[in-house]
């Protein structure tokens, strides 16, 4: 539904009247331009080239410039500009590299005037000189800029930026001979049209391609630039070196930027992708737009203020095939919806809280914070009280500082540096990380790692040399005795379901032997039983088996409803007939010591009656293996990870994710994992743990995380001998034919980690330079410079 408010503006002898309105186009628009009397607008695109009259209530189509039976690439427009001195003169930039001028005063249907075919690739931008009617400037994807005199058939000057493609060119409004150009490598160049051999000034404006620029209509030295780094920067070109005076942070790549007439600090922007809105910014408020137009449903491709002296009307074209006239009065103001409250933790635990001044009561005992500002925290400088937004969304800042030393995060740094996340078996990783956590006093974390080892790691076989107990003091190959106790002294409450507690020993046995005499159990090296308060006839040895492997059977206290366990006499098939007479304990000892007895027979389960008051039972591991699969604990492990993440220990959650890998990763959704990874990486980078952060990114299987260290990073390297830029084709300089990365100590080419002095540019292998500077502060290359390495 159209907004019905109207504005009438008197501009000299003309009057502008209108409202917010739009019209549907035949195809998406790439660019728009307004004639000097603000009565007509031209819309150009790949499939559209029309002129519309701007009336009070609507847009009216006046002229279609795409004539002819055959479609021509000359009509596929990437940009269009209407001359501000001659209302009949238009120029378009074609996608095939042709620059076309149009004369609307011609009587024929075809208004095409001249064609310039000197560019080899797409022309991105065309611009008329503000005061010279016959001077036209173009910038192309081929990296060249050409200046055309419309009275001639070819260009009069060619400017080479010695760089990548040209994205925008703009004549200065105040300087007759000056124009600015922007490039995809992030540079901005200033040229004098009288000197096409070299630029007057060049500087790096953005981290990435610079898509647009615009000179300030009133301030002679101000140039606004917008780039892919989502920033709009205002440069003061009147100084000896370009000085950044303002920087506006947007949420998407900036495709167009236009200064607002009659408003010194306002400019309009639109994005190249993602964001469809048109924003008007006050550069003194770099984070909150002053106005926002939300009518378009696709990317806005062109914006233009209707009149150079009227700040009320803004025109825009979009890929949604619509042309809009926006009334500034109808724009939404995000500052009205801005939240003046904020809460944030500092790196070392300080808490900052911002709220409306009316809500923050002044406490008599509170010490004033040195950083308190009564102006909104997003202002860069002290506000002018005459500004209309001086009192909007103002906040008072309070900072609650922690006691010195109470919020130390040394445990986080130590844990991150000492944890092992890959390169070892799972059992060793869990044991190592548990040891690290235990040494740092984090016992719960250590216990968690230990439990993970128990769940996911199968116990290995233990050699007999590690056994703590044996039958007989002098026996060399006795039967391993792990647990021995007397049933006479057992509490009556211990039944068949009683389980033996595990101890810390490293030995393992599948046999439980019960004897009325403790004299058979002797081990001088057993530290578990020395000095123990346990009676001599009730001794528990070291057990590392499963809980369900060991049972105590007492016929006097057995539950009647439970089935009786019937054990076979032998665990393995018999190879020969065995005498049915059960041997006594002495016979059993002799048989175990005998070399003719096989290991399977010695470990076999047997029920040996020793006395009428108790029973001797041994349960074989092969008969009672109740180990649960690791997948049984997956839900529990996932809950554990979420618990640590909710408690703020995202380090533990990510470390377990990496160590366990696919064992648990499949049970946690990708979005949650990505959130944990990004939080942990952010913490690591805050503490400058760059190597650990890179390792976490590398070990991650999430695409969104693994691509963090694969983003485009440009490193410009100059030759240390001739100081010329190096190409990316090898280690040899193209100009002086010498190896640029020679180690000053060993005089070999450095192909790995390279360190150099920023003062003399000499360097070499990291270890070599460190060792050299331990004994001398002079440069190892012999240049005499005093180098430092910290």
UniProtKB/TrEMBL annotation:
It catalyses: S-ubiquitinyl-[E2 ubiquitin-conjugating enzyme]-L-cysteine + [acceptor protein]-L-lysine = [E2 ubiquitin-conjugating enzyme]-L-cysteine + N(6)-ubiquitinyl-[acceptor protein]-L-lysine. Gene3D superfamilies: YVTN repeat-like/Quinoprotein amine dehydrogenase (2.130.10.10). Keywords: Autophagy, Lysosome, Membrane, Metal-binding, Repeat, Transferase, Ubl conjugation pathway, WD repeat, Zinc, Zinc-finger. Its main location: membrane. GO terms for cellular component: lysosomal membrane. It is found in: Lysosome membrane. Pathway: Protein modification; protein ubiquitination. GO terms for molecular function: ubiquitin protein ligase activity; zinc ion binding. Pfam families: WD40 (PF00400). InterPro entries: WD40/YVTN_repeat-like_dom_sf (IPR015943), WD40_repeat_CS (IPR019775), WD40_repeat_dom_sf (IPR036322), WD40_rpt (IPR001680), WDR24 (IPR037590). It comes from the Eukaryota. GO terms for biological process: autophagy; positive regulation of TORC1 signaling. Belongs to the WD repeat WDR24 family. Catalytic component of the GATOR2 complex, a multiprotein complex that acts as an activator of the amino acid-sensing branch of the mTORC1 signaling pathway. The GATOR2 complex indirectly activates mTORC1 through the inhibition of the GATOR1 subcomplex. GATOR2 probably acts as an E3 ubiquitin-protein ligase toward GATOR1. In the presence of abundant amino acids, the GATOR2 complex mediates ubiquitination of the NPRL2 core component of the GATOR1 complex, leading to GATOR1 inactivation. In the absence of amino acids, GATOR2 is inhibited, activating the GATOR1 complex. Component of the GATOR2 subcomplex, composed of MIOS, SEC13, SEH1L, WDR24 and WDR59. The GATOR2 complex interacts with CASTOR1 and CASTOR2; the interaction is negatively regulated by arginine. The GATOR2 complex interacts with SESN1, SESN2 and SESN3; the interaction is negatively regulated by amino acids. SESN1, SESN2 and SESN3 convey leucine availability via direct interaction with SEH1L and WDR24. This is GATOR2 complex protein WDR24. It comes from Bos taurus (Bovine). The gene is WDR24.
């Amino acid at each position: 539904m159209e907004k019905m408010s109207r504005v009438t503006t008197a501009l000299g002898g003309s009057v502008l009247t209108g409202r917010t309105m739009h019209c549907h186009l035949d195809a998406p628009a790439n660019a728009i331009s307004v004639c000097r009397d603000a009565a007509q607008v031209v819309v150009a695109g790949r499939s559209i080239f029309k002129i519309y009259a701007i009336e009070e209530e609507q847009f009216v189509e006046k002229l279609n410039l795409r004539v002819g039976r055959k479609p021509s690439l000359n009509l596929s427009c990437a940009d269009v500009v209407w001359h501000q001195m001659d209302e009949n003169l238009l120029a378009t930039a074609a996608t095939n590299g042709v620059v076309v001028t149009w004369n609307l005063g011609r009587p024929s249907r075809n208004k095409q005037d001249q064609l310039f075919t000197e560019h080899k690739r797409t022309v991105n931008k065309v611009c008329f000189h503000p005061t010279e009617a016959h001077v036209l400037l173009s910038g192309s994807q081929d990296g060249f800029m050409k200046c055309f005199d419309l009275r001639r058939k070819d260009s009069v000057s060619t400017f080479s930026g010695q760089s990548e493609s040209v994205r925008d060119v703009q004549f200065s409004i105040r300087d007759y001979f000056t124009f600015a150009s922007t490039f995809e490598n992030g540079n901005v160049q200033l040229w004098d049209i009288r000197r096409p051999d070299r630029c007057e000034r060049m500087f790096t404006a953005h981290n990435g391609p610079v898509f647009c620029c615009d000179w300030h209509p009133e301030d002679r030295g101000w140039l606004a630039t917008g780039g892919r780094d989502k920033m709009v920067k205002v440069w003061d070109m009147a100084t000896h070196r370009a000085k950044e005076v303002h920087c506006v942070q947007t949420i998407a790549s900036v495709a167009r930027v236009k200064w607002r007439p009659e408003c010194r600090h306002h400019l309009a922007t639109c994005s190249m992708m993602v964001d469809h809105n048109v924003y008007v910014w006050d550069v003194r408020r770099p984070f909150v737009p002053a106005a926002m137009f939300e009518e378009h449903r696709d990317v806005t491709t062109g914006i233009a203020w209707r009149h150079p002296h009227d700040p009320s009307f803004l025109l825009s074209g979009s890929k949604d095939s619509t042309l809009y006239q926006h009334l500034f009065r109808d724009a939404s103001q995000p500052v009205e919806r801005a939240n003046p409250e904020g809460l944030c933790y500092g790196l070392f635990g300080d808490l900052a809280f911002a709220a409306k001044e009316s809500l923050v009561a002044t406490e008599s005992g509170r010490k004033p914070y040195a950083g308190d500002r009564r102006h909104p925290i997003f202002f860069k400088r002290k506000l002018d009280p005459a500004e209309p937004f001086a009192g909007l969304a103002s906040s008072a800042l309070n900072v609650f500082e922690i006691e010195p030393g109470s919020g130390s995060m040394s445990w986080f740094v130590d844990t991150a540096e000492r944890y092992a996340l890959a390169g070892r078996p799972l059992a060793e990783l869990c044991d190592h990380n548990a040891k690290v956590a235990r040494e740092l006093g984090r016992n719960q974390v250590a216990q968690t790692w230990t439990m993970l080892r128990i769940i996911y790691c199968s116990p290995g076989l233990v050699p007999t040399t590690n056994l703590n107990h044996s039958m007989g003091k002098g026996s060399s190959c006795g039967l391993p005795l792990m647990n021995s106790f007397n049933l006479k002294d057992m509490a009556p409450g211990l039944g068949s379901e009683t389980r033996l507690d595990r101890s810390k020993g490293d030995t393992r046995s599948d046999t439980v032997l019960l004897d009325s005499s403790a004299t058979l159990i002797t081990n001088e090296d057993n530290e578990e039983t020395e000095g123990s308060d346990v009676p001599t006839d009730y001794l528990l040895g070291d057990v590392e088996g499963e809980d369900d492997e060991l049972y105590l059977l007492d016929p006097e206290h057995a539950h009647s409803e439970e089935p009786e366990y019937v054990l076979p006499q032998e665990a393995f098939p018999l190879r020969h007939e065995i005498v049915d007479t059960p041997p006594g304990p002495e016979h059993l000892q002799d048989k175990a010591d005998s070399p003719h007895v096989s290991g399977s027979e010695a470990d076999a389960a047997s029920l040996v009656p020793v006395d009428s008051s108790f029973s001797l039972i041994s349960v074989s591991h092969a008969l009672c293996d109740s180990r649960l699969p690791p997948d049984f604990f997956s839900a529990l492990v996932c809950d554990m990870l979420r618990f640590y993440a909710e408690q703020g220990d995202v380090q533990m959650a990510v470390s377990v994710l990496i160590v366990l890998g696919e064992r648990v990763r499949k049970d946690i959704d990708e979005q949650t994992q990505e959130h944990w990874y990004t939080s942990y990486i952010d913490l690591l980078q805050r503490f400058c743990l760059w190597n650990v952060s890179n390792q976490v990114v590398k070990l991650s299987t999430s695409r969104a995380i693994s691509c963090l260290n694969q983003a485009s990073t440009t490193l410009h390297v100059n030759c240390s001998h001739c100081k010329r830029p190096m190409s990316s084709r090898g280690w040899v300089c193209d100009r002086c034919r010498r190896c640029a990365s020679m180690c000053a100590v060993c005089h070999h080419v450095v192909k790995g980690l390279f360190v150099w002095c920023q003062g003399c540019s000499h360097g070499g292998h990291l270890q070599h330079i460190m060792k050299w500077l331990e004994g001398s502060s002079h440069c190892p290359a012999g240049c005499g410079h005093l180098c430092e390495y910290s």
